[in-house]
């Protein structure tokens, strides 16, 4: 799960940076405000990559997804991009857990002695 979720978060890192450039040009917010918010969100993406296996890591990822969708208030295209990344996040968590379960089952089968 960690690999898939981290890949999604790194993609979001770049999208947030590009959205910050758009927000600087199209919104009435100051550049300092835009980059303070975008910088925190970008740092959170990177930090979450390392915290995914800890308790609350996936939930923080969901909070980030909601914030990304909400950023559509400043950059309307982010409604669409945020929804796409929320879907990617769901798929990363869902299928990543299935892969982890399959790996654990395979490891369990490899360590059991053959009874045949």
In a few lines, what is going on in this structure?
The protein contains 4 helices and no strands.
Rounded to an integer in angstroms, the radius of gyration calculated over CA atoms is 18 Å
Main sheet properties: none
Q: How many strand elements?
A: 0
Mean pLDDT equals 93
- Distinct helical segment count: 4
Helix content: over 70%
Give the end-to-end Cα distance, rounded to a whole number of Å: 34 Å
Pattern of helices and strands: HHHH
Tell me the fraction of residues in β-strands, as a range. under 5%
Uncertain ranges: none
Shape call: elongated
Which structural class is indicated by helix and strand composition? mainly alpha
Layout of helices and strands:
Layout: H1 2-26, H2 31-51, H3 57-70, H4 77-111
Written description of the protein model:
The protein has helices at 2-26, 31-51, 57-70, 77-111. It has 116 residues and is mostly helical. The mean pLDDT is 93.
